[in-house]
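Why this split exists: single-chain examples teach little about how molecules sit against one another. For that reason, every record in the complexes split bundles all components of an assembly together and asks for one structure covering all of them. Below is a record exactly as it appears in the raw files.
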Amino acid sequence: MSNIFNIETKNGKQYGILFIYILHSINKLPKTGYDLITEIKEKTEGTWVPSKGTIYPLLKHLQEENFIIIKQIGERSKQIFMITDEGKKTLSNAKKYGCQMEENFLKFRRLVSEIVEFKNEEIIELMYNIRMLSVSKSKIKDDEVRYILDNCVNDLKKI
Amino acid sequence: MSNIFNIETKNGKQYGILFIYILHSINKLPKTGYDLITEIKEKTEGTWVPSKGTIYPLLKHLQEENFIIIKQIGERSKQIFMITDEGKKTLSNAKKYGCQMEENFLKFRRLVSEIVEFKNEEIIELMYNIRMLSVSKSKIKDDEVRYILDNCVNDLKKI
DNA sequence: ATAATACCGTTCGAAACCGAAATATTTTTA
DNA sequence: TAAAAATATTTCGGTTTCGAACGGTATTAT
């Protein structure tokens, strides 16, 4: 399942979603490993809670690769990490491929739709197209996308 | 990341997405391990390709648990699997919790959207409504749902 | 004042999955 | 006609992630 949540840049480098999220989050505000676990848990309402056995080794690795450094050490061996210039560059580069991740996820989700949602393959495909188009077109004309989706909701309600 | 791709039934049983997909797909048409790998690869356009090392042991396990049996053996040691009554029951039971996985996806997706800087909560919410309405309304009037979704796709394409 | 909980990090065995290598046969391509 | 590709399965070492156990301190609840 690695391809679904990985980004692969031009030079063949692969970054997992946790790798990217850590850089993304620390870029916004320096924080601890404990903070990151808590934040992800809250933001996904408990559906994704990376293990300590995953977070702490990965933070150490990010340090070794010079993407982050320890900004300060507080009480209880608290280690507050901050992003480096190298980390910012890597994050920025990875985000260029963010739509790749989005598309992969939507493709995977389409398969899941077949199992748990719709029996009609045509509707599955239509839903997939709406999702894909919404993401790409909203970058151009956000308002129009929202208007169209809102109309769709209203039409569906009338059934 | 187990919660995102698992369904957990009332009695605490957990089923992975691959487990469920295999039962779902074989329920529709008996097939081989090779067929399953190929099918998943095609349907997700290459974003998810379970490994042979994953599929074949899992098929063996499903057999041992009496969810599937070998319907026939063809050329090249081809093993065609079909679902059992026990398998159908388990599949049916798991599908009842399908919406659980959908909810998890939505929550996880919000985090992914933050990373890729697709910040439009309103569009995500509208998409969620469209999906919910489509599921429920398609049970009543499949044709009308398809018509409305098709119109939506066409409108989005015009942007 | 004490116990429970929350806040911190480290580490390693187990589980799940991957991917390569191996084996084999049939079909397609050059 | 021979080579390449596709169809098939098995297996196992390696990788990734988890989760439990461990160690520790500060805060909150009883």
